[in-house]
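re: ur question from earlier - yeah i can do the single chain one, its not a big deal. heres the input i used so u can compare w yours
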Amino acid sequence: VALGDTDALRVETTDLDEIDIARVATGRGVTITFDALPNTTLRGTVEHIALRAGAGAGGTTYKTTIAFDEADPRLRWGMTAFVDIETE
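and the output i got, formated as C-alpha cells:
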C-alpha cells in the first residue's frame, strides 16, 4: 500500500548541480511546465534545498523541493516536470 496526500503535491528536482544550486535560494519563484499538460504553465516557490549532495548522472546534484502556488487538478504523482528557477 502506498499512501500520499494529493492536496500537497510538490516537485523535486533531480538535476541541479553544484554550479546551479549556488544561485538558488529558498523563497525564489519558479515556473513549472509538464509534457503531459501542454500549454499549461504553473507557478511555484522553492520550499527546501537539500544541504547534502547526492550522486547524479552528471556528478554532484542537490534535491530541491518546490511547492505549487496553485496546483492543477490534472497533476499526478510521477509526472515529469520542467522547472525554471528565478535566480535574481
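The two ends are 42 Å apart (CA to CA). not sure if urs matches, ping me
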